[in-house]
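Section 3.1 - Work completed
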Amino acid sequence: GPGALPRHDAMPTGTALRSTTRRLQLAGARGASRGGIRSRSSIWPARPCDRPVYRLAPICSSMDDDGYDDEEYEGPEGSDEEEFTYVLGGDGLFDNGDPSMRLYLDSADQNQWRKWAETGMFFGFTTNPTILRRDGVKCTLPSIRQMSRLAFELDVEELQLQAWGETVAEMYSNALDLAELDTRVVVKVPMTMDGIQTARRLVNDEVPVTFTAVYSVHQAVTALSVGAQYIAPYLGRMNDAGKDGIEACASMQAIVDMSQERDGETRLLVASIRSADELAALAVNGCNTFTISPAVAEQLVSDPMTLDAARVFEEHAAEMRSMGD
């Protein structure tokens, strides 16, 4: 009928073949991972983890429709809880939700990448066509491939690249091109009908997806229903439009948290943050994943009182070294 999603078997042979190839590539990446954490419903490559993974309550029946078992284990010695629930799947431990703080640098400036990678603060980098334009990077696959090589040389955990296209077929094809650069690529798509249809195909292909340009709380529900790994609301632009951006992001985070109690590891990735104080306010309201500009990153490490204290420490250190000379 009108508006119906095109079937996969109606796609051009080349696109369908690349889709199948992508599934096999990611299956291999998962098979090569050891001791990683993934959610029960996650289809993305596992990440190494040395910490124990546990839940305080069962999150699915003893055998659910997907074939995953819940098995109970004794808690760590000396713990307050007698039982912890591990979720076991075909390729190891799965973890529902990861509370760790995660920062991304919202930039395509390779000098900024090098500078901030040295700090260890950033989980990865995020880009979009507007950022590429600002930082002088062509929005073409060869140019993005060249840019991406540096990110991977800097050992980032993730690089988020945005797909483009005036139709679902074009956006999907470009998204596959981006995903094929590396298993650490997360593909961004806008929260539009074309973006949603593209995201559905990518999720089926086991490609991690970020919904970007999110402005309304209800869009978090849409993103979760499709299976996105990240939802990116634009805080500053919501405020510019007269909305309470902090409150909207807090509400989206609550929706994501409720979803994580059952399954999934979707994160709210707050973007368009214009100050370190805004970031702190978001963290107080339960958010733990942010993408920030280099200017905001500077604010995180340059509190005037801290800089004054550090200067005094150095002065006193020099003074004490000179004693007795």
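Second construct:
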Amino acid sequence: MPLRTSTVGSTPKESPIKTVANLAWTMNFAAGCTAGLSLCPDFFDNRNGEVPKVHPAFLPSCTEIVGVFASIYHSGYTREEMIENTLAHQYCDVVFSKETEFFSGDEFETSFKMISAVQKKSGISIVTKFSHTKHRGSDSNLIAEGYFGGVLLGATLEGKDTSIGSVPNRPQWNNSEGYEKSTTLVLPSNAAHVWDACIRNTRVPKAKSSDINVHTNLALAEKAGFKSRTFTGLCLLANVMTLLLSISSTSAFSSKFTKLERYGCRFSKPVMAMFDEICLDIQYSLHVHESKLTIFFQVIQETDGAAIKDGYMVLSIPASHL
């Protein structure tokens, strides 16, 4: 059946999703987006009582993706319709709380609802909003808010275009002269399969519905109309973030900016993956304004063009370093 706009703004029964970011899960996840670099101690070193941090891409990759599908099924969509009308990830936007850190072992809840459903030529453009809250004893603190935008390819709406909210304005810059720097990211051919395992909670059995996966299942990708597997957009983004954050941390110009406040991007053409490694060109520029560093970037695949456009990460100097 068509997606019902009458459900936009209502809360799916699966919300909130309650999660414990257990150590094995957060380390596995960080290992799935190392961008070919050495492991970052921040996400792995638990010696001497230290508690590792959670990789910043964890929330959209491990919990928001579950909420997006739940919000779609909440509209009356079926598993069969999801196979026929594949969800193409269009953009990602995550805004972190300035006060709350996120560590392995933290318990948190993810509340979500679809805030927009609009008919486009390509299908239905949807936006789901997320609020991630950490719980410790009787205290509750917001970790981050996220926005997940996608298109149900070829799908039709039942009802009028409906929007009850929008994504906050994104950082802007004058890129008339293009990006200042570039680097290469090489992802192994098994990266999507490793990612598919790393985003799963190690203590929860994999749901049967997760088999609807054009990133790892070649037959399903062909059935959905793709020429090969489509590389996972969030996996690509997470690896690019890891690479650029590593470059930033070793630069005298930018190394003091270590607190990530926000990141996001638009996913453009899907990266096609078959059996060989994937070579990507990461173009980026660093801009400092009002005591914040913004890394603007895009990702280019030689054979298929831009995979990520309008990417950005906003970093500040931690208060203890001021």
